[in-house]
Amino acid sequence: MTHRSLLCALLVVGGLVVTGVTPSDATESPDQQLKAACEKGKAAACESLGNLYINGEGVKQDDSQAVALYRRACETGALGGCFALGWMYTTGRGVEQDHGQAVALYRKACDGGVLAGCVGLGERYQYGEGVEQDYGQAVTLYRKACTGGDVHACYALGCMYADGHGVKLDDFIAADLFQKACEGGHPNGCNRLGGAYFEGRGRPQDEGDALKYFRRGCELKHPKSCEDFKFLKNGKLK
Fold first, then answer.
1. pLDDT tens, residue by residue, 55-97
2. How wide is the angle at C-alpha 216 spanned by C-alphas 84 and 15, nearest 5°?
3. pLDDT in tens, 116-129
4. What is the rounded distance in angstroms from the CA atom of residue 224 to the CA atom of residue 4?
5. How many C-beta atoms lie closer than 10 Å to residue 140's C-beta?
6. Does the pTM exceed 0.70?
7. Which of 123, 145, 148, 175 is the most exposed place for a label (fewest CB within 10 A)?
8. At 10, is the secondary structure helix, strand, or coil?
9. Where are the alpha helices (DSSP H) in 76-165?
10. SS3 category, 133
11. Is residue 21 over pLDDT 50?
12. Helix, strand or coil for residue 201?
């Protein structure tokens, strides 16, 4: 099995973590503070409260409530809420799945400087969901986000170079991007970099380095990296 043949999975998953919660009163829980701030029109508080509901942290998990809060956040200026709402439309959580709505929301977030929004929009162009498939547009968006420091975008751009989609196939650039993603904590990037060393694609063939990056991917809870590390260590990876 070659690592070139592995499909790049959709990237807009998780990433919805609570931010900006600084308890100021021991008698109030973070969700109470955020509710009060959101009611006062603070868009970022609405976004963070939506994160609590989507993750079920301190409140009962409720996708519909998260959608309502993300929508409010997006409409009042918190562009991270636009990205999060786009993710809800992409996955069909709390709303009927609608890639067209997701595209519009990701575009708004991306135009406002939210790199995750650029990644989400790039994916829609890559897979032709909600827009006509356009690898060139996907590459442009991934490059923008990767340059800005988003490791998910670096991984996705690496996949485009590895597969020759929207750019000329280049294993060396792909490996560089997988390394950047891996160093930023992206487990798939570590796995693909391990594969590059194992197969000698864009990196000198070196089973020691392959093991190193498979191990790193495994440490980042990537099941395939754990399998690849185990099989290569036992001399069975092909």
1. 999 999 999 999 999 999 999 999 999 999 999 999 999 999 9
2. 5
3. 999 999 999 999 99
4. 14
5. 16
6. yes
7. 148
8. coil
9. 79-91, 99-111, 115-127, 135-147, 151-163
10. coil
11. no
12. coil
